[in-house]
């Protein structure tokens, strides 16, 4: 029977040295957590303050108000609902496509035996070394020829699959026993049924990890929507924040309210799937 970490020689759980190290560790971790939380807290308090200025650094609102959020809602030139819907459509669709295509490719590269499989996987991984700026103009010109500029399909199509997601899921599927698939095939499952009914449910932690990474990347994506969306009604929230900053640069409460609206869904998504995220990060690191 395996021993607990506490049972190994030299591991002390009592005495002045143990409590000193433990206390110091908790103090450092708490200080680091508070330091990383301060920018978000300042954004929150500024958005809830009346008439804040750039020189004001207040961690408790001197005069609590929701006017900044109401102003974002009421001003006719700020299409908050439309921008929010655009961002949700963009982020959710990109995430769904990535989970679908990356899981299929990852399973094929891990469990399906075909000629050139490892070389194909190496080719996928090699594309991660190509800077995105190299392919930016060719992809844009292709979308121009297709007439997809300033459209949802133009925003989404270039991001429907990512080599990092294929690598992550391939490593996870590689760590799962092949005997599970062999047993399923003996019972009459075809290749897709083996993937969908056997391996995919076991990949939930890795899928959650990839989903969080993809959703956060799409939600916060600034460069690609800035290039494709040239109409105010096609803006996503990061582009909208940039436009609000240029137009209302002196209204810090308004800008911080817009920033809070952008970051809140990402925080909620991470908190909702954090257990799967931690498990996926550990499992995807197994040798394959």
From TrEMBL:
Give the main localization category.
membrane
Cell compartments where the protein resides: Cell membrane
Q: Which domain of life is it from?
A: Archaea
Give the UniProt entry's GO cellular component terms. plasma membrane
Q: How does it sit in the membrane?
A: Multi-pass membrane protein
Q: Which SUPFAM superfamilies match?
A: MetI-like
InterPro entries the UniProt entry points to: MetI-like, MetI-like_sf
Q: Where are the transmembrane segments?
A: 23-42, 80-99, 120-143, 198-219, 252-278
Keywords in alphabetical order: Cell membrane, Membrane, Transmembrane, Transmembrane helix, Transport
The residues covered by the ABC transmembrane type-1 domain are: 84-273
Gene3D superfamilies attached to this UniProt entry: MetI-like (1.10.3720.10)
Q: Provide the GO biological process annotations.
A: transmembrane transport
* PANTHER family cross-referenced by the UniProt entry: ABC TRANSPORTER PERMEASE PROTEIN MG189-RELATED (PTHR43744:SF12), ABC TRANSPORTER PERMEASE PROTEIN MG189-RELATED-RELATED (PTHR43744)
Indicate the family of this protein: Belongs to the binding-protein-dependent transport system permease family.
Please give the name of this protein: Carbohydrate ABC transporter permease
Q: Which organism is it from?
A: Haloarcula rubra
Organism taxonomic ancestry? Archaea, Methanobacteriati, Methanobacteriota, Stenosarchaea group, Halobacteria
